[in-house]
Amino acid sequence: xxxVLLGAPGSGKGTQSQRLVKRFGIPQISTGDLLRSAVARxxxxxxxxxxxxxxxKLVEDAIVLGMIRERLAEADAAQGFILDGFPRNLVQARxxxxxxxxxxxxxxxxxxxxxxxxxxxxxxxxxxxxxxCGAVYNIYSMPVxxxxxxSACDAKPPLVQRPDDxxxxxxxxxxxxxxxxxxxxxxxxxxxxxxxxDAQGDIDEITALLxxxxxAAPVEGVKVRRxxxxxxxxxxxxxxxxKKGxxxxxxxxxxxxxxxxxxxSxxxxxxxxxxxxxVKTKAKAKAKAKAKAKTKAKRAGRxxxxxxxxxxxxxxxxxx
Length: 320
Ligand SMILES: [Zn+2]
Fold this sequence. Notes:
The protein is of the alpha/beta class.
C-alpha cells in the first residue's frame, strides 16, 4: 500500500495519516521530518539541505526526493508508506512517479480529502493551542461557554492562537494550495488512481471511509493492466464529469453497467462509484449551503454560528 494523501491545510490529512499508520502498520513519511532528521544527523543530503536553507533558498526537489528514497529503503517501509507533505506540485508529482517506478514501487492509492473552503477556514481559524503541552483545541467544537484553558495541564493555562492560524493567513494559505496543488488532482485523475473522500464531519467516519477506499479492490488498476488507452479516456471523461454536473449521471450509469459485467468486483465498483459521485455532488451543495449559513450566522452572532456548525452534516452520505 503506497499512498499519497492530498488535501488542503485543515483537511485532516495529518490526523487521518496517523490513523492509517496504526491501522495498516506502514510508516507516514513526512518530508518535513525527513529534512529535520537529515540535517540533524548531518547526512550528505542533510548538509546540502542545510546549505540551501541557510542561504534562504528552497530545498531542491532532488534533495527531498533523495531523502524519500533513502527513507523507503528502511525496513518498516517494505510493506508501504503514506506520503505526507509531498508532492506539493505537478513537477514534484512527476519526479516522484519517476523515482518510484525506478524502484519498482509505484503508488497504489491517491486519495483527496475534500473539505469546502468555508469549513477549512473555520477549522483553522478556530484552532487554539496549549502553550504548555501543545494540545490542540478548536473553539468551534468546544461546548458553548467552554473555558479557553487547557484541560490536560494542571495549571490550566489559557489557550493561544498560532499567528499562522488567523483568518487572513488561512485565506492566503488556501490560495497557495489552490494554485499549486490543485493541478495534482487533474494529474492523478488522469492516471486513474485518484479517489475522493468527503472529509467533513466525524473523524471516525472519515477514517472508516478512507479505510474502505484503501482496502477495496483497485478497480481502476484492473483496467490499467487490461486496456491502458481506454482507461485513460475514461479517466479524462471523469474529470470532465466532475466539472459538469450533468455528465455525472451518465458517467455513473456507464460505470455501473461495466460493474455489472464483472460479477466478482461488482460490489466494490458500485460502492466506489457511488462514493465518488455522490460525495462530490453533496460536497458542492454542502459547501454552498454552509457558506450561506456562515454569512447569515455572522450577522446573527457567534452563538447561532456554533449551532449551525454542529448540525449533523453526515446525513445521507454514501456509505457501504
Ligand atoms: Zn496543556
